[in-house]
Specification:
heterodimer; A: alpha/beta; four-stranded mixed β-sheet; 11 strands; B: alpha/beta; 3 domains; binds iron/sulfur cluster
Chain lengths: 186, 452
């Protein structure tokens, strides 16, 4: 007997009665979406900035290697995208476009179709996500409703910079992925 | 080693044991605070529990639906009835790729299957990439907690370890400095690995996708740079619909660490062009647990660790005292199902206070199942039961008389003794605990007096 047949017949052999699958209510939040979203991102150790603040930060840092995959704001890349993501190892900044944001927890949905490389949001030193204010939703329930069952090979909710507290529960930003996250709300 | 013996070991370093206790309580407290900001929290727990109930009641149907959809997406699905078969499947994929070094992100299942030693025996270098897991791997230890793998270590110990392994400055104990040293070290491993292994938090039947949650981003760093992704999951990780993720992702991180969501929640549906995703569905005792009606719903567990953080025994005896891959209250009801003899003392490592059941996001009746296991163990294994009382609690529960006397002594002692003396051993796990308010008389004394 194959292991698949073994496992399935073991389950069927128990002879359980089917239990109902509950319908899900769509819980919301009371707070206004933009301010709730902002607070969530800050609690996750990210920042919400406007375009001017962002431009200033960009000028001050003068990053050599920048990749841009967003059409909503006028910033340009300084390098062309390599075919092999391993070459992104010394990338300073990736500017990406988020498809929607969740106010209750700051999670931002990015899907494959907007990611030239799946590794981009992780391998970059700093991450900037551009998000339309009109694309904010109260909770994960509305976010999944909006995403629906659309097919993207890879999709990601990202809510802050890479972090860990594995040494004595002290929070450290920049474990393996991006050392900072900035969200530009437009 | 029985649980009480191992707990005694842990409690030898009293300062550390106290720190462990307080730190986990702090995490538990964060969970409490954030859960109270969600008015529908209890409703979410009910929903999560009902969804899992539905899944377990027709797991065969969902598994087949999941397999079909995953295959349509280009994922290669494998089935393993036990740990051995799981390990063989992983090895065969690696051999086909001619791969001799892999990176792995946190996966309790691969710990359960003892994958690392198996691969190493076969000449493959395994690098655990979660910071906490890398730390314990350097020490040749298993994780002591399913969410906080290195919670039993102090930064001084980690500093020394990193000095030896990663050549960090001697005596530099700054967590940021140490973390960034590990970042550099692991970056190199990520860039070289051709195959990456991850666990699975949820697998969605209707879409054939699976979800992996981390805060560090290590799962994604490994997977997106490698050519082949191997994902290992227990068969109970299935959920029916994509929208069910809304319920579970709202509960998971809040219950685990008191944060609103994990920073990276990756949904894998198809491999990138030219790459491969393999998914291994593992039984390894799960169908047997499913068949045990009383213990069935232990399979609802989403591995958040909340029951460990809240457990007065876990906090005061440490993860290793359980001697099982999953420690703590949930481990104590899962492990006897795998090996009742080896884990016979675990269901007794509990005060049955019920705090675990109160925090569990999928509403598993953990403390009731602990009680059920006690019945099973003492009833069906007479032989085992005899040896058991010897093993338990240094004999304090052995006879009703001893129990009564020690209770009376305790009540007298707690009132008059200074704190330093109370931190003295009464029983092994009780050693480090804070004092309860002592009643003037026990229930038994009260009952005797009032009955007359
Ligand atoms: S039993 Fe419940 S509380 Fe414990 S780890 Fe599992 S889901 Fe979390």
């Amino acid at each position: 007997m194959s292991s698949k047949a073994f496992i399935l017949s073991a389950i069927r052999g128990i002879g359980q009665k089917g239990k109902p699958l509950p319908e899900l209510p769509s819980f919301g939040i009371e707070e206004e979406l933009e301010s709730a979203f902002r607070k969530s991102i800050e609690a996750n150790k990210g920042q919400v900035v406007n375009q001017e603040e962002f431009s200033e930060w960009l000028r001050a840092n003068n990053f050599p290697k920048i990749v841009v995959a967003s059409t909503s704001i006028p910033f340009s890349a300084t390098i062309s995208l390599p075919e092999d993501p391993h070459e992104l190892d010394d990338l300073n900044l990736a500017i990406l476009e988020g498809q929607l944001g969740v106010a209750e927890n700051g999670a931002i949905w990015l899907d494959d179709r907007h990611l030239p490389h799946r590794a981009l949001p992780f391998i970059t030193e700093h991450l900037v996500i551009v998000l339309l204010k009109s694309r904010l939703f109260p909770t994960m329930h509305q976010a999944y409703e909006e995403i629906g069952n659309q097919h993207s090979g890879f999709g990601l909710f990202i809510a802050g910079p890479s972090k860990t507290a594995d040494i004595e529960q002290s929070l450290v930003i920049g474990a393996h992925g991006a050392m900072s996250l900035r969200v530009i709300l437009v | 080693m029985s649980h009480p013996q191992a707990a005694t070991e842990f409690l030898k370093d009293q300062a550390k044991a106290k720190w462990h206790d307080e730190t986990l309580w702090f995490v538990r407290d964060k969970r409490d605070r954030i859960s109270k900001t969600i008015p529908e929290w209890e409703e979410l727990r009910n929903l999560a529990s009902q969804i899992k109930e539905n899944v377990l009641s027709q797991l065969d149907v969902y598994l087949e639906e999941f397999e079909q959809n995953a295959q349509k997406n280009g994922i290669q699905v494998h089935w393993a009835k036990d740990a051995e078969e799981h390990n063989e499947i992983v090895l065969s994929i690696l051999q086909k790729q001619k791969c001799r070094a892999i990176v792995k992100s946190k996966s309790i299942l691969t710990e359960e299957c003892h994958l690392n030693p198996y691969l190493e025996k076969n000449g493959i270098e395994v690098v655990d990439t979660d910071l906490g897991e890398r730390i314990v791997q350097f020490l040749n230890q298993p994780p002591s907690h399913i969410v906080l793998p290195a919670i039993h270590l102090k930064k001084g110990e980690i500093s020394e370890l990193f000095h030896e392994k990663l050549h960090t400055q001697k005596g530099n104990e700054d967590p940021t400095y140490l973390t960034h040293a590990a970042r550099l070290h692991l970056r190199e491993k990520f860039l070289k690995a051709k195959v990456a292994i991850t666990g699975v938090n949820f697998a969605v039947a209707e879409t054939g996708e699976f979800v992996v949650c981390t805060n560090e981003g290590n799962a994604d760093m490994g997977v997106h740079l490698a050519d082949v992704h191997i994902a290992c999951m227990g068969i109970e990780k299935i959920i029916p619909r994509r929208k069910d993720l809304g319920v579970f992702l709202r509960l998971l991180a809040r219950s685990a660490t008191g944060q609103p969501v994990t920073n990276y929640n990756s949904h894998f549906r198809s491999p990138s062009p030219g790459k491969e995703i393999h998914l291994i569905l593992v039984d390894n005792g799960r169908t047997a647990q499913l068949a045990r009606e009383k213990f069935r719903n232990s399979l609802k567990c989403i591995r958040c660790g909340a029951c460990m953080n809240t457990c007065p025994i876990y906090r005061r005896s440490g993860g290793y005292s359980y001697g099982s891959t999953v420690p703590g209250p949930i481990g104590s009801i899962l492990s006897p199902g795998l090996d009742m003899k080896k884990h016979s003392t675990l269901p007794f490592a509990s005060t049955l206070c019920g705090s675990c059941s109160d925090v569990c996001p999928v509403k598993i009746n953990i403390h009731e199942q602990l009680y059920e296991w006690r019945q099973e163990i003492t009833k069906t294994h007479g032989e085992l039961g005899k040896g058991l009382s010897m093993k338990l609690a240094n004999g304090i529960f052995k006879s009703p008389l001893a129990y009564k006397i020690s209770g009376n002594l305790m009540r007298a002692a707690l009132k008059t003794l200074p704190k330093s003396l109370i931190y003295h051993p009464i029983n092994s796990w009780g050693k480090g605990r804070n004092l309860p308010e002592t009643p003037n008389e026990s229930f038994k004394d009260w009952y005797q007096r009032n009955r007359k």
